[in-house]
């Protein structure tokens, strides 16, 4: 006899009301988190679809202000505790004699790990525990290979071995490709994981896989149990295929690790002969911030409904060297073009610094800037959601603050004295 599914009106009403005392109890998905480290953020909605609860992300600091955790490893049970202390209290994973390797290649030139770096390390651990033959491989070491020097704690995000290939100024793709070939011969990795959304990583992955006669999987958005969901010939569609050795992945391909930290150890870079370089680095070229796409820029000045002088806003963006963004209201009112809209209905951004000028902080806008590292809010409303989200808030008229920023960058205020 077929099972008859019956509705529970009371449960549906609680699921719709996030302020209900039993809402968090019913929305917790099997007692697990969604990878961000907070219990209760992975929600089962009334229609059976699992959704991320943006209100459940974050932790309460010692001063009672709710903060959003961007580290990928903080849990709400550690409220008010420093990240370093949390890492020391977590179980430590140590691979002394690995039998398999998975190599994660990062081409980001920032000192800190990017969101995509953390996602790739999370995918590597996912593949290490559920390989294509569905067997557990506890002796699989995750090798994090970075093309540029990094200062971040890579062990906290799952790196068992770390290899750094150089400084942050030299562009040498011929040398990098030779090192990857040597590493492939030395370790015979089970998988190579590259970022498909970056120029250097995607180019190196395609050259390496082509020289080895293997077919890479591009635009990988998910991987599980020997199969992957990746791009097809049509850029708008994805297909499911067998797990490949070379994976070129997109953001959010996997959740960052949580619940443990790795004992990372440095590895020597393989020795390769420096032959005649086919590409010579002639140095960096200045780029107009207006020409940088929002998903790729590191510095955004975003304007909202609170901006009254848009000419001053554009002048401030030029003075700071920032890429311009906007809220939905500013775009709908015709002050900014549609491609500059930040948010769930616009563009998701991953900037190092995000300055929100006159933006109240609608939930759709906050979703679009979730992965920004440092958020500065300029607003006259001290109780708005953007101020609560920001790492630094300036409660003042936006025109006065923007004019002060322009004057400071142009030297009209003289040298700024050290506050200390």
Automatic annotation (TrEMBL):
Segments forming domain Electron transfer flavoprotein alpha/beta-subunit N-terminal: 104-222
Comp. bias regions, Basic and acidic residues: 1-35
Gene3D superfamilies for the chain: HUPs, TPP-binding domain
GO MF annotation, one: electron transfer activity
Residue ranges occupied by any Electron transfer flavoprotein alpha subunit C-terminal domain in the UniProt entry: 294-369
Record's compositionally biased regions (Polar residues): 73-91
Example GO biological process: fatty acid beta-oxidation using acyl-CoA dehydrogenase
Signal sequence extent: none
Region (Disordered): 1-92
UniProt keywords, alphabetically: Electron transport, Transport
InterPro entries tied to this protein: DHS-like_NAD/FAD-binding_dom (IPR029035), ETF_a/b_N (IPR014730), ETF_a/FixB (IPR001308), ETF_asu_C (IPR014731), Rossmann-like_a/b/a_fold (IPR014729)
Stated family: Belongs to the ETF alpha-subunit/FixB family.
PANTHER family xref list: ELECTRON TRANSFER FLAVOPROTEIN ALPHA, ELECTRON TRANSFER FLAVOPROTEIN SUBUNIT ALPHA, MITOCHONDRIAL
Protein name from the UniProt record: Electron transfer flavoprotein subunit alpha
């Amino acid at each position: 006899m077929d099972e008859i599914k019956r509705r529970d009106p009371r449960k549906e009403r609680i699921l719709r009301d996030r302020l209900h005392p039993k809402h968090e109890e019913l929305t917790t998905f099997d007692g697990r988190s969604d990878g961000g480290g907070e219990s209760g953020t992975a929600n089962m909605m009334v229609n059976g679809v699992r959704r991320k609860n943006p209100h459940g992300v974050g932790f309460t600091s010692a001063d009672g202000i709710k903060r959003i955790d961007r580290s990928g490893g903080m849990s709400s049970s550690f409220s008010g505790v420093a990240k370093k202390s949390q890492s020391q209290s977590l179980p430590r994973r140590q691979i002394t004699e690995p039998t398999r390797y998975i190599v994660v290649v990062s081409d980001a030139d920032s000192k800190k790990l990017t969101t995509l770096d953390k996602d790739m390390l999370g995918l590597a651990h996912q593949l290490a525990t559920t390989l294509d033959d569905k067997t557990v491989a506890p002796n699989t070491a995750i090798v994090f290979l970075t093309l540029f020097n990094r200062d971040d704690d890579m062990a906290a995000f799952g790196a068992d071995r770390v290899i750094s290939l150089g400084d942050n100024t030299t562009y040498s793709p011929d040398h990098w490709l030779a090192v990857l070939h040597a590493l492939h011969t030395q370790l015979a990795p089970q998988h190579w994981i590259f970022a498909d959304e970056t120029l250097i990583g995607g180019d190196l992955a395609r050259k390496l896989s082509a020289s080895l006669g293997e077919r890479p999987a591009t635009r990988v958005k998910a991987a599980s149990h020997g199969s992957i969901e990746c791009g097809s010939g049509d850029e708008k569609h994805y297909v499911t295929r067998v797990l490949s050795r070379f994976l070129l992945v997109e953001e959010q391909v996997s959740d960052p690790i949580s619940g443990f930290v790795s004992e990372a150890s440095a590895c020597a870079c393989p020795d390769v002969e420096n032959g005649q370089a086919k590409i010579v680095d002639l140095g960096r070229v200045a780029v107009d911030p207006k020409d940088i796409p929002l998903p790729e820029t590191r510095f955004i000045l975003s304007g909202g409904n609170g901006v009254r002088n848009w000419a001053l806003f554009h002048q401030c963006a030029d003075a700071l060297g920032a890429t311009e963004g906007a809220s939905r209201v500013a775009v709908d009112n015709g002050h900014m073009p549609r491609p500059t809209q930040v948010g769930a209905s616009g563009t998701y951004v991953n900037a190092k610094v995000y300055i929100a000028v006159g933006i109240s902080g609608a939930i759709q806008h906050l979703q679009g800037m979730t992965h920004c590292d440092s958020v500065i809010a300029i607003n006259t409303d001290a109780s708005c959601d953007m101020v609560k989200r920001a790492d630094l808030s300036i409660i003042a008229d936006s025109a006065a603050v923007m004019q002060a920023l322009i004057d400071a960058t142009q030297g009209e205020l003289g040298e700024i004295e050290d506050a200390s």
